[in-house]
């Protein structure tokens, strides 16, 4: 049973007589554990509710439109934490004194369904499995890393091997779709182990919808941890060669590529960025698979909206080291026809986590500020969209407002509400306003 925290005014639950503080037991005879179960089992048009008030049972019945909300508010999900000891765990590689949520190791299948978080499925009980199937929590995002039981046990730091393939087979045969990832640790799960893992997962297609290959990420804060090394460029090329071979086979067999390299792998090997159709429905965009292609498409769509002439605007654009070469190429192509525009692309090295961390999403606000101190910034600074969290904080807890105060010029975070046509228009309007003020002041000076 779970306690109801609130009843929405004028809702079905309010009209039925449910109260905040009541204990919700079942809906249509299905036990309710959290908001996911509430939403799923109350989506029918004929609903029977069993609750408890002051230790006494109370029952309700109603007919409603399918998917109409009952108006019952339950507590926020209490996150289930990870009990594994993965040798490549990124949380273990973080420095001290960052914001608290960064140190949370979640292993919660509900967050996988809701937000695309990757889970290893090592903490699932039989009840969890049956609930996933019954409530159709699909798709889920699964960190597999290796299907060889002993290799997976070592990678995840498990006491004994788990039966990941059996678990995945049960889920896929029950209609649950899975998107999977393999974090490649050289010497651990590459080579023949990787080949076997991919082949095993492909046997579960179409239940397994995608497999992403991601190079292991290593920071400079690995003191006392299991020795690991990054992929070499040569190893990355070998993996890309295997990817092309697999994709050719699977396109013929399943009419989809199934296996996708992360953008990081593509950039490490200076591979051509594939077209949109390559990524099919972009199943793992949040895992860095296809982000560069999406950005290129986005930039192309803006070209016709850009002005042909500007009043001498100087724009500073921030990026990480990895994407800098391709960003320079694409941005200069995008702006090539705009006269009076000067673009300065600054690649920021990661001092907080180490220079081996080259993606923009892990840049700290302090590192960006330190890099900008040595540059002429011009009229405005444009940040990558993934450097801030939902609370407008950088990785090192620096507030966006404080960042802007330090620079004393306009700062834009590139994204849906701040694309280049809008950014340039706002800068132009600001400069025009400043010029009008200067002109007005000159006219006030006696001759």
Task: Walk me through the structure.
- The chain has 447 residues and is an alpha/beta fold.
- It folds into three domains: 2-73, Pdz3 Domain (Roll), CATH 2.30.42; 91-289, pyruvate-formate lyase- activating enzyme, CATH 3.80.30; 296-433, Rossmann fold, CATH 3.40.50.
- Helices cover 34% and strands 18% of the residues.
- It contains 14 helices and 16 strands.
- It has helices at residues 12-16, 35-41, 109-115, 126-134, 149-156, 164-173, 191-202, 233-254, 263-268, 291-302, 324-334, 365-372, 400-407, 420-444; strands at 2-3, 6-7, 23-27, 30-31, 46-53, 56-63, 72-73, 118-119, 140-143, 178-184, 208-215, 259-261, 309-320, 339-348, 380-383, 411-413.
- A hairpin with a 2-residue loop joins strand 3 and strand 4 (30-31).
- It is globular, with a radius of gyration of 26 Å.
- The mean pLDDT is 93.
Helix vs. strand class: alpha/beta
Q: How far apart are the first and last residues' alpha carbons, in Å?
A: 84 Å
Number of helices: 14
Order of helices and strands: EEHEEHEEEHEHEHHEHEHEHHEHEHEHEH
Contiguous runs where pLDDT drops below 50 for at least 5 residues: none
Radius of gyration, in Å, reads 26 Å
CATH topology of the largest domain: pyruvate-formate lyase- activating enzyme
Looking at the overall shape, the CATH architecture of the largest domain is Alpha-Beta Horseshoe
Strand content: 15-25%
Query: Largest sheet at a glance?
Result: 5 strands, antiparallel
**Domain count:** 3
| Principal-axis shape | globular
In round numbers, the mean pLDDT is 93
Oligomeric state of the chains present here: single chain
Number of strands: 16
Helix proportion: 25-40%
At the first level of CATH, what is the class of the largest domain?
A: Alpha Beta
């Amino acid at each position: 049973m779970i306690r109801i925290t609130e009843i929405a005014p004028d809702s079905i639950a309010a009209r039925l007589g449910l109260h905040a503080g009541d204990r919700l037991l079942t809906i249509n005879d299905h036990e309710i554990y959290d908001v996911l179960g509430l939403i799923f089992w109350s989506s029918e048009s004929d609903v029977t509710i069993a609750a408890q008030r002051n230790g006494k049972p109370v029952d309700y019945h109603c007919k409603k439109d399918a998917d109409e909300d009952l108006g019952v508010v339950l507590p926020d999900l209490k996150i289930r934490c990870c009990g594994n000891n993965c040798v490549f765990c990124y949380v273990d590689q973080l420095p001290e004194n960052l914001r608290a949520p960064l140190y949370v190791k979640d292993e919660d299948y509900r967050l996988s369904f809701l937000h695309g978080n990757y889970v290893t499925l090592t903490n699932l009980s039989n009840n969890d499995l049956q609930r996933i199937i019954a409530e159709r929590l699909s798709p889920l995002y699964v960190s597999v890393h290796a299907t060889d039981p002993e290799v997976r046990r070592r990678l995840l730091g498990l006491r004994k091997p788990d039966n990941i393939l059996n678990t995945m087979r049960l889920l896929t045969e029950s209609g649950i779709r899975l998107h999977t990832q393999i974090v490649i640790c050289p010497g651990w799960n590459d080579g023949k182990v990787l080949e076997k893992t991919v082949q095993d997962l492909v046997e579960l297609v179409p239940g397994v919808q995608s497999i992403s290959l991601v190079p292991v990420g290593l920071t400079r804060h690995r003191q006392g941890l299991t020795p690991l090394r990054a992929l070499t460029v040569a190893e990355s090329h070998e993996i890309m060669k295997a990817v092309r071979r697999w994709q050719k086979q699977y396109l013929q067999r399943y009419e989809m590529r199934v296996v996708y390299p992360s953008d990081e792998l593509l950039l490490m090997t200076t591979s051509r960025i594939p077209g949109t159709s390559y990524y099919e429905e972009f199943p793992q965009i949040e895992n860095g698979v296809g982000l560069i292609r999406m950005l290129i498409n986005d930039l192309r769509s803006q070209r016709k909206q850009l002005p042909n002439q500007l009043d001498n605007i100087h724009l500073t654009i921030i990026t990480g080291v990895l994407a800098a070469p391709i960003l320079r190429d694409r941005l200069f192509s995008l702006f090539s026809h705009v006269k009076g525009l000067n673009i300065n692309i600054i690649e920021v090295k990661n001092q907080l986590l180490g220079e081996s961390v080259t993606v923009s999403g892990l840049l700290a606000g302090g590192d960006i500020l330190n890099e900008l101190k040595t540059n002429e910034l011009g009229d405005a600074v444009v940040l990558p969209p993934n450097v801030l969290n939902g609370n407008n904080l950088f990785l090192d807890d620096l507030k966006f407002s404080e960042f802007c105060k330090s620079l004393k010029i306009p700062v834009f975070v590139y994204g849906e509400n701040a694309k280049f046509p809008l950014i340039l228009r706002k800068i132009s309007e600001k400069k025009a306003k400043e010029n009008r003020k200067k002109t007005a002041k000159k006219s006030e000076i006696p001759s």
